[in-house]
Structure formats: C-alpha cells, structure tokens
Design brief:
By secondary structure, the protein is α/β, with parallel strands linked by helices. Helices cover 46% and strands 11% of the residues. The strands form 2 sheets. It has a 3-stranded parallel β-sheet with strand order 3-4-5. Helix 1 packs parallel to helix 2. The longest helix has 19 residues. It is elongated. The chain starts with a strand and ends with a helix.
Length: 184
C-alpha cells in the first residue's frame, strides 16, 4: 500500500509493485502476474521482470486512453474492461470513504505535535524491551522488521495514534543513537 503523505495520498506504490514483481520472479515464486494498472511508471519494472522470465497479464479498466501505450506494448497479454462493464458489478466509492485491507479502524496520521518526543519514546521502548538483542539494531543499516514492528507498536500505545513518516524516522534514529551510545 505504500506510504501516505499528510493529505492521505498514497506514495511510492509504483516502486513497491516493481520491487515485488522483480523479487517474486527472481525467487521463482511466480511465473505470471496480473497487473491492474495503466500507469507508464510501471513499464521499466515490467520489462525487468519479463527479462527474468515473468509473463505479465495486463488488465485495464475504463477508457482506452487511461492506459499508457508504453505499458500496454510491453504486456504479454492484455484485457480491457470498459467503464460500462465495470459498472455492472462495482460502484464508485464516496470521496470520504476509505477502504482498508483489514478490519482495524482507520487511524489518521496526526501532524507532528508537542507530545511526540523521539528520545523519550526510544528510552521507554528500550527500557520496556530489555530482552531485545540490541546488536541486531546496529548490525544493519535498517532496524530488523520484527524489532521495528515492536517499536512502532510501542509508540502507538504510548501516543494513542500512529506515527507519521517523519516521526518514524526520528524514532528509529533515536533508538539507534541510544543503542550506539550504550554500546560505546
């Protein structure tokens, strides 16, 4: 799903789709992919994955001009569903309706405020999670996913909301700095 900016728009989804196509193809986890998009930005990723052996099935919806001719030219198989056909089984969501992949309530990201303090959150996390192998935090450029999940979960519990991307980066940096200071 990518990340969301402060206005709720999704960002970096194209890059995630491309990374998944290439990674899954390299690992021989897939031989075919159904791509529901018309976005020209996906074309280089489609070509790279095809060079690894992936067959790309392109499904586009709506008007023909909504699909990039470059993407369509690269797809192995193409199918277009006109708007009239899509409307037989789907309706457009209301603008204020947000669809989430889970049944969890939607938590909107609040702007950075005075209640967020990366250093304090980092210290409380490390204090409450003394069993975490701190060497793993410093071993890689990025904090391991399993530890990062616990960090973000702790912050959500303390603040009562999800962190925005800038806050996440600040908190991760504070954790690494604190662990580095303790190690030295």
């Amino acid at each position: 799903m990518g990340t969301r900016n402060r206005t709720g728009q999704q960002k970096a989804v194209d890059g995630l789709i491309i990374a998944d196509l290439i990674s899954l193809t390299q690992n021989r986890a897939i031989s075919d992919a159904l791509l529901v998009s018309g976005d020209a930005d996906l074309t280089p990723g489609v070509v790279a994955a095809q060079n690894l052996g992936l067959r790309v099935h392109l499904l586009t919806m709506g008007p023909e001009q909504a699909t990039s001719p470059f993407l369509a030219a690269e797809a192995d198989y193409k199918q277009r569903w006109p708007s009239e056909f899509v409307q037989t089984f789907a309706t457009m969501a209301q603008e204020e309706t947000e669809v989430t992949p889970s049944s969890q309530p939607i938590v909107t990201e609040a702007p950075i405020n005075e209640h967020f303090n990366a250093e304090t959150l980092a210290q409380s996390f490390l204090y409450e999670n003394g069993e975490i192998d701190r060497s793993k935090i410093l071993a890689e450029r990025f904090i391991p996913r399993s530890i990062d999940f616990k960090i973000l979960q702790h912050a959500r519990q303390v603040l009562g909301r999800r962190l925005i991307e800038d806050e996440k980066r600040s908190l991760r940096s504070a954790i690494k700095n604190h662990v580095q200071t303790v190690v030295e």
